[in-house]
Amino acid sequence: xxxxxxxxxxxxxxxxxxxxxxxxxxxxxxxxxxxxxxxxxxxxxxxxxxxxxxxxxxxxxxxxxxxxxxxxxxxxxxxxxxxxxxxxxxxxxxxxxxxxxxxxxxxxxxxxxxxxxxxxxxxxxxxxxxxxxxxxxxxxxxxxx
Amino acid sequence: xxxxxxxxxxxxxxxxxxxxxxxxxxxxxxxxxxxxxxxxxxxxxxxxxxxxxxxxxxxxxxxxxxxxxxxxxxxxxxxxxxxxxxxxxxxxxxxxxxxxxxxxxxxxxxxxxxxxxx
Lengths: 145, 118
Known about the structure:
The complex is a heterodimer. By secondary structure, chain A is an alpha+beta fold. Chain A has a single domain, classed as 2-Layer Sandwich (Heat Shock Protein 90), CATH 3.30.565. Helices cover 32% and strands 22% of the residues of chain A. In chain A, a hairpin with a 5-residue loop joins strand 4 (123-126) and strand 5 (132-138). In chain A, helix 1 packs antiparallel against helix 2. Chain B has a single domain, classed as Transcription Regulator spoIIAA. Helices cover 42% and strands 25% of the residues of chain B. Chain B is built from four helices and seven strands. In chain B, the strands form two sheets. A five-stranded mixed sheet of chain B has the order 1-2-4-6-7. A two-stranded parallel sheet of chain B has the order 3-5. In chain B, strand 6 (81-85), helix 3 and strand 7 form a beta-alpha-beta unit. The mean pLDDT of chain B is 94. At the A-B interface, helix 2 and helix 3 of A face strand 5, helix 2 and helix 3 of B.
């Protein structure tokens, strides 16, 4: 069956903040991407972005509490893969994070997670409360991306 | 998790060569252990000269970058040298995207890294 003929995959998961659950959801989403012939660049980009989104949810949203559930909604079709990560924390203002790529901030040891997601994905939205990140990566990325 | 080291550390001519055993530097616990192990090497050295060999690394999180920044600062405080070597492919993209390629000394090969420290 060609990738174009395959049905889009779309599902919802509730995870704990454990390494096992993080690895598990990453395997599921990356496997779906592989079945739809996404390239290595996209697989790497989504893997890193999932890792950063989940780590933000655990460490900042839930203050490291692995027992609190993180909701992950995702889909994958022949055009793109999209993922929404929601934590139960109070959220934060992403604008309050100093630009980690500014020369004066290059030695700051934290604050790069969202910047990496924005660089590796094609569309990224953070809700006003700051506890929900939605990210999308197209299979065929624009040359300018 | 076992107590097995996540690093292989070799000493030669006053230069410490660090190789990563784990190819995915993503897990917070692993990152903390790696950071602590390299920090203890820095603490033991009067003038640390350290090369981190990324040849085996295939994924790196922002927490790992933070750990490397902390180590770089620690080495800098002792007027030593920390070189990142053999960073390639998507890992190089991570450093470029975050502009940390400007904050670290990066060499394409181990030979280049060792040569620059001698």
